[in-house]
Amino acid sequence: MPKLGMEPIRRDAIVKATIAELGVKKSLDVTVSQIAKRAGMSSALAHHYFGGKDQIFLAAMRQILSDFGAEARQELKQAAPGERPHAIIRACFGPACFTPDVIAAWMTFYVLAQTNGDALRLWQIYQSRIRSNLIDAMRPALSDPVEAAEDMIALIDGLYIRAALSAPEEPQLAVDHALRVLARFLEAENDPT
């Protein structure tokens, strides 16, 4: 008979192993068997807890998004009201979001979202949340925070991919670039000409 309380521990181990395997393989060519081996259990047990490879990947992305959410809340909690957009940008490139394993997971998630409806819905939820947070954060400073939020989301996504591919060890370069663009939005709003 299984020990009570082992399921959350094993599920967590599988999620962490998935992220680590994606970091090694850097593609969707990861098997449930490889994930299970890294987690120290059988592939049958991994299938039992999640059902299949796509569900395991989605659980890993939910964990990554949860970690990002915690990082964003922490940044927002420490930010002065006028610095909230800056806090969101910093969170996008923070330690929870910008490790080699997490970068690889994000890249494979983008690929999976093209063919998997559940992954696409999860991506849409992420996009909706970051959009609403940016709109709310920029509303006091901009007359059209919706357009600015859309522009910042596109910029953040592009800078994330660019930084992941060219300078994964220096996420601050991407943060600095995004903050410069944000400053231009704010300056243009306050320019009377």
Can you tell me the CATH topology? Tetracycline Repressor, domain 2
Give the termini separation: 74 Å
The count of domains is 1
Gyration radius (Cα, Å) is: 19 Å
Order of helices and strands: HHHHHHHHH
In CATH, the homologous superfamily goes by the name Tetracycline Repressor, domain 2
The proportion of strand residues reads under 5%
The CATH architecture assignment turns out to be Orthogonal Bundle
Account of the 3D structure:
With 193 residues, this protein is an all-alpha fold. The protein has a single domain (6-190), classed as Tetracycline Repressor, domain 2 (Orthogonal Bundle). Helices cover 77% and strands 0% of the residues. It has helices spanning 6-25, 32-39, 43-50, 53-78, 84-92, 100-113, 117-138, 145-166, 171-190. It starts with 5 loop residues before the first helix and ends with a helix. The mean pLDDT is 90.
Task: Annotate the secondary structure layout.
Layout: H1 6-25, H2 32-39, H3 43-50, H4 53-78, H5 84-92, H6 100-113, H7 117-138, H8 145-166, H9 171-190
Helix pairs in contact: 1-2, 1-4, 1-6, 2-3, 4-5, 4-6, 4-7, 5-9, 6-7, 7-8, 8-9
Keywords:
single chain, about 190 residues, mainly alpha, Tetracycline Repressor, domain 2, elongated
Describe, in short, the structure shown.
The chain has 193 residues and is mainly alpha-helical. It has helices spanning 6-25, 32-39, 43-50, 53-78, 84-92, 100-113, 117-138, 145-166, 171-190.
